[in-house]
């Protein structure tokens, strides 16, 4: 395989399957209908008590499973649903026999405090520290789930077993850039010739009280609790923080020639990828935006694409005061006068910030934007920020031909990842 090459002589990487779950619904069709209608999935939290918390809203996925499902089990279940849809759409392999590698973005897996308390109480007489006692107790009780889900790689291991992927599954966590990072690893593996196919997934089902409090302590979350659907306001002057959310996105990537040879429908092409790190601060970006600017430029270079070829930007757009301004300044620095003519919108205005899953979910939506010729809006944009003079597709979706999308993902800790996704060549 590999007759078709990119401008650097590497195999072209095609997207042949996609799947998604978010606070808007299960499956691509339901999500896309809600997204283009400008509907928000943010609501009041009912999973745990929120009295005395500054933030009481989130984009939790509570509508699929009849029983309560806690993290990290929820992360696995969401990943499974998204992967099922992606693999089925790709029509690749047979059930339980995916002919390629697995690259998976997962949150830092940990037991929630109710489970920790139960195990700790039961194991209080065991040796070792508290965490060791919990694991010992789980083993003594033959509680395989409690033991395995306390291990970082468990979610990917279980998905690999279920889908029959090849080789050792790769788990990664690069904060809010994780989903895009997983896609990049899949692209690189195909370009190197390590595999003809890759299943890439970003998943996050980790909204629990401890996680919410952690982000509250960073003053990163919106406190617009009285009007949840209006809480996520990317690029607006009155934005006050992001809204935590859950979900999963999955894509099947293939060597373009291998996909065509088996008769697969090509949904899009992974044109360019890049990552740049920022060591300025644990949560803040370098003030001049240089790492983000470098990541965007390197993505364009990796794709061999000119500034005038990009006709939509799926922004990171978290709705935090600093991120939105930094992203806008960085985009203006890269695109110059072209930025005035490029529509830029944030899916997070509707689905919230899905953290580890964000880059993968937003990549799925970017492909749909190309296929459907409809740009999802940035909702809740009623008070424009004069310092961000961008076309943010305010409040209402827009019909427009789109052939090349820049999708941005920037994470706490200085993780900056960009994807350039294009239409199949004519």
UniProtKB/TrEMBL annotation:
Gene3D superfamilies on file: 3.40.47.10
Source species, domain of life: Bacteria
Pfam families named among the record's database cross-references: ketoacyl-synt, Ketoacyl-synt_C
Residue intervals of the Ketosynthase family 3 (KS3) domain: 10-423
Keywords, in A-Z order: Acyltransferase, Transferase
GO biological process, one term: fatty acid biosynthetic process
PROSITE patterns (alphabetical): KS3_1, KS3_2
Enzyme class: transferase
GO molecular-function terms, A-Z: 3-oxoacyl-[acyl-carrier-protein] synthase activity
Enzyme Commission number(s) from the entry: 2.3.1.179
InterPro entries: Beta-ketoacyl_synthase (IPR000794), Ketoacyl_synth_AS (IPR018201), Ketoacyl_synth_C (IPR014031), Ketoacyl_synth_N (IPR014030), PKS_Beta-ketoAc_synthase_dom (IPR020841), Thiolase-like (IPR016039)
Pathway as given in its UniProt record: Lipid metabolism; fatty acid biosynthesis
Metal-binding recorded as keyword: no
SUPFAM superfamilies linked to this entry: Thiolase-like
Cellular component terms (Gene Ontology): cytosol
UniProt record similarity statement: Belongs to the thiolase-like superfamily. Beta-ketoacyl-ACP synthases family.
PANTHER family attached to this UniProt entry: 3-OXOACYL-[ACYL-CARRIER-PROTEIN] SYNTHASE, MITOCHONDRIAL, POLYKETIDE SYNTHASE-RELATED
Protein's UniProt name: 3-oxoacyl-[acyl-carrier-protein] synthase II
Biological source species: Kaistia hirudinis
């Amino acid at each position: 395989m590999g007759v078709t090459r990119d401008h650097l002589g590497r195999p072209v990487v095609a997207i042949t399957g996609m799947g998604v779950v978010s606070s808007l619904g299960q499956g691509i069709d339901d999500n896309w209908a809600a997204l283009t209608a400008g509907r928000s999935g943010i609501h009041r939290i009912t999973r745990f008590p929120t009295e005395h918390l500054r933030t009481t809203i989130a984009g939790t996925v509570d509508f699929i499973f009849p029983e309560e499902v806690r993290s990290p089990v929820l992360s696995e279940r969401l990943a499974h649903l998204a992967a099922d849809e992606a693999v089925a759409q790709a029509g690749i392999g047979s059930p339980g026999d995916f002919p390629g590698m697995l690259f998976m973005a997962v949150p830092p897996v940990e037991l929630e405090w109710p489970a920790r308390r139960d195990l700790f109480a039961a194991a209080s007489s065991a040796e070792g520290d508290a965490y060791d006692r919990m694991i010992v107790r789980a083993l003594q009780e033959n509680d395989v789930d409690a033991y395995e889900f306390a291990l970082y790689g468990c979610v990917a291991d279980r998905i690999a077993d279920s889908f029959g992927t090849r080789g050792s599954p790769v788990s990664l966590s690069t904060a809010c850039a994780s989903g895009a990072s997983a896609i990049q690893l899949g692209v690189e593996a195909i370009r190197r010739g390590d595999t003809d196919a890759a299943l890439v997934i970003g998943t996050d089902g980790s909204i629990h009280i401890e996680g919410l409090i952690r982000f509250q302590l960073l003053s990163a979350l919106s406190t617009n609790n009285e009007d949840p659907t209006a809480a996520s306001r990317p690029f607006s002057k009155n934005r006050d923080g992001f809204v935590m959310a859950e979900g999963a996105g999955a894509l099947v990537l293939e060597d373009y020639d291998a996909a065509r040879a088996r008769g697969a429908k090509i949904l899009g092409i992974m044109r360019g990828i890049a990552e740049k790190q920022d060591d300025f601060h644990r949560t803040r970006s370098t003030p001049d935006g240089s790492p983000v600017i470098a990541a965007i430029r390197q993505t364009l270079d990796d794709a061999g694409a000119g500034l005038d070829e990009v006709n939509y930007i799926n922004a990171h757009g978290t709705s935090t005061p600093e991120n939105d301004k930094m992203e806008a300044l960085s985009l203006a620095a890269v695109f110059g006068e072209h930025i005035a003519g490029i529509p830029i919108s944030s899916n997070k205005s509707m689905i919230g910030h899905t953290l580890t899953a964000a880059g993968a979910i937003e990549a799925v939506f970017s492909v749909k934007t190309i296929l459907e010729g409809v740009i999802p809006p940035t909702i809740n944009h009623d008070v424009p920020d004069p310092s961000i003079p961008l076309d943010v597709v305010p409040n209402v979706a827009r019909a427009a031909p789109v052939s090349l999308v820049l999708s941005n993902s920037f994470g706490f800790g200085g993780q900056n990842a960009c994807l350039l996704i294009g239409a199949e060549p004519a």
